[in-house]
Amino acid sequence: xxxxxxxxxxxxxxxxxxxxxxxxxxxxxxxxxxxxxxxxxxxxxxxxxxxxxxxxxxxxxxxxxxxxxxxxxxxxxxxxxxxxxxxxxxxxxxxxxxxxxxxxxxxxxxxxxxxxxxxxxxxxxxxxxxxxxxxxxxxxxxxxxxxxxxxxxxxxxxxxxxxxxxxxxxxxxxxxxxxxxxxxxxxxxxxxxxxxxxxxxxxxxxxxxxxxxxxxxxxxxxxxxxxxxxxxxxxxxxxxxxxxxxxxxxxxxxxxxxxxxxxxxxxxxxxxxxxxxxxxxxxxxxxxxxxxxxxxxxxxxxxxxxxxxxxxxxxxxxxxxxxxxxxxxxx
Length: 331
Known about the structure:
It is built from eight helices and nine strands. It has 331 residues and is an alpha/beta fold. It is elongated.
């Protein structure tokens, strides 16, 4: 059997790979490095699981460490989109939590049971955990499918197009729309800005005015943090400051809706998810492509975990049959 210090090898490989990703920057080679490292993490996890298969806590720890390593690689990769990763955090954490409980039930608790009447509770608990794990994994996959469909989102460049999208049922545009135009405001003024250092001011307004290609203007909700902006250019007197000026081209990802002011209704962009600097083509090739690429591995992971989610029910049935066959009938 192959023998090596798997922990040291894994840590060194992960650190070297992350360093390689940083050195490669935004070049295409970074994607191949990331996929290679993710494959290495999976291989090491399988080997660790095989070597620790007779334990109780170590296999669970291996899975949790492998999941942490995969998330680190995704976040450290060039172009990784942290808010997209966050959308998968809850279902992935739920799957890991239920999977750990199922493992402890079947590996540590079930072998110690001695009563036939305990067979049904074991089967019921294992099946319930399987159902919960399956729901979490399929939720990840469905979320990835929705994100993968984002390039087909409706695009709005005029008030007439905005009106048409607003009248459509929500089910026909569940992922919102992309509104492309320019930022309205006094000439050459700063409309919004943020800094990547803590010792400089940040201003992200609660609302923006978007001027569309037909000259019409529409109000848009703002965003609450810099993780919801993309590609803003450097500007202003402070180092590391980025901003939007009046007249800058932007693409706003939001839902179409109504704004009521002084008893009158007008079109608006609500629940803004992202404000990206640049033209629609630049948005598709840049921020949108990064969002889709970040979500893709989670979709495949969700499908793989859906199959694994069936194992607690299978082994729960096996444990229940064993209790029925060999345990005592005590009350």
